[in-house]
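From the pipeline queue, job 12 of 40. The input is one protein chain; the requested action is below.

Action: predict structure.
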Amino acid sequence: MDAGLFGVVFEGLSTGAVVGLALAGVAALAGLYLLEPRRRAVVVAFAPLWFGDAGERRAERWARRLRRWLSLALQLAIFGLILGAAAAPRPAGVDRAGRSVVVLVDHSASMSASDEPGTRLGTARTRARAALGAFEAGDRALVASFATDVVAETGFEPCTDTGLGVLARALSRVTPTEEPGDLPRALAFAAAALVGRPHPTIVLVTDGAFTEDARAQVRWSGDGSLAGVDVRWVSVGRRARNVAIVSFAARGLPADPRTAETVVALRNFGDAPASVTLEIASGGPAPGAEALVERLHLTLAPGETRRHVVPDVAVPDARLEARLLEADDLALDDHAFAIAPRARQLRVLHVGARDLYL
């Protein structure tokens, strides 16, 4: 990299080499075009026959000369582009060794919560754009979304007006999912993408709704995979007002194949007590085909998990639904479905005399 010329820094060639090559190239091309072709003497039988075309020949000569100057201009333009590509110019105030940024946007199920204006994901997109706008033109950024898997929405784009437009459009394409968030996989992807890049930086935009096991697997510093990486946490989510159905299962009873035992587990993820109404219904998806099995009102303490067992449920079509009637910040976990396995028909061979009770 050289000191540059007129506020421009050349990274591919030195300033002296660029000036020398430019002068030599222009001189060589101009000299070739200024060379007049050697005239050839031609013997003719009667010279006056050729004099009548002198005016037309003069016009053709001027047209030919104009075409030659246009051709020279085109050749000089092509030479300038080749020289510019070799010199790799850039503004003197822009540092090409700027930050390399990976913006990780969480779009797991919890990001559909409505405690932010719109949803948490909408706020996450807005804050990710604001974070990108804080970087300088010499920085380069990549946008990736993650839930169970990680998807690179863009490559590394410069943080200029054009590059930020590409990154903003990629952020707008991130849509919510019903998958859990895999934090260790997302950070491992970001660390791999930043290997060998200058000033590696990760911007993690999330509501932090990860399991304790996932948090324990993440090594933020020291000798872990994120050593030397600047990790910035951008948090979304205003409150945690959510009661969720965390599990719902049914098993057929051997004594009566037409009934099942069901177990539903609820958890209050909020920081205040919550009262909910739980309904369990049995029946098909058609309107009016279901039958209400049980309805009960529960109050859960902050962080409490409670199991409820219904020991004897008639399941003629083996389909059960559990639902919470009160609305909260996250509607995705207010419904759950279970299928009770149908009893298998057994063929029995009876050997012996007929038995009335059998």
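Job complete. Residues 54-87 form the longest helix (34 residues).
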